[in-house]
Amino acid sequence: MNFGWTMIDGRLPKLAIRAYFALIIPFLLATGAVRLLLTEAFLHLEYQRPGFPADGFGFTTADRLEYGPLALRYLFNDAGSEFLAVERLPPDKCWPPAARARGCAMFNASELRHMDDVKSVATALFASALACLATALALLIVSKRKPERQRQIRAGIRLGAHLTITLILTLAALALASWNFAFDFFHDLLFAAGTWRFPYSDTLIRLYPEQLFMDAALSIGAFCLLDAVMILALRSRLDEPVR
């Protein structure tokens, strides 16, 4: 019995290290891609690309370029929802037209609550990614003089790259089969039911139409696939036999 436990106990840390890196690679690649897209540069590319849907309620491309980055700035600052609550639209940009005589707030109460939820999710996501990355770096450091652990780490990274490709291709197939289902499922997973649906005339939809999310999903998938392929391209160093 003692012999059997010693074998299990000696094997578990190796499997745990390999599994840890295999699991965090897809998460870190996806989170990195998300952070890359939550930038004004991505919005500028989207708003100005040919074929991006126009706003049927009065926003021009110039308006979107001016107002679109506000929500992104809110996600990464220390302010509360008052950061967005104080923003107002010029009378000619308000909807419905009845509101134009007096002007209107850029975001209504429901939109502000949703942006609070988005900020909470984004904060938790990026904090988790930083914690995973810090743990991975710590494991790399303490494994510097332990060849067996280094082999396990390299094997875990390689496995994580394969897992990333599998997940991205699977999710892509699901999205192609039913984008609406995938879009709804993603939002229902992160936000309370009924808190993320808005009329097309609301500012959030006017600034961030569904096409923006479709393009973002494609970009995230492409970034993750490219990164995973680059990892696997180093297989001459990662393919050392693991015992």
Question: In words, what does this structure look like?
Answer:
With 243 residues, the chain is mainly alpha-helical. It has one domain. It is 71% helix and 2% strand. α1 (2-37) crosses α5, α6 crosses α7 and α6 (147-177) runs antiparallel to α9. The longest helix has 36 residues, at 2-37. It starts with a helix and ends in a 5-residue tail after the last helix.
Number of domains: 1
Strand runs, count: 2
Which residues form runs of ≥5 with pLDDT under 50? 3-9
How far the N terminus sits from the C terminus, by CA atoms, comes to 22 Å
Question: Main beta sheet: strand number and arrangement?
Answer: 2 strands, antiparallel
Q: Treating each run of at least 4 consecutive H or I residues as one helix, how many helices? A: 10
Give the overall form: elongated
Classify the secondary structure makeup into a structural class: mainly alpha
Percentage of residues in strands: under 5%
| Strand line-up in the sheet with most strands | 1-2
Q: From the alpha-carbon coordinates, what is the Rg to the nearest angstrom?
A: 23 Å
Helicity range: over 70%
Mean pLDDT: 90
The string of secondary-structure elements, in order, is HHHHEEHHHHHH
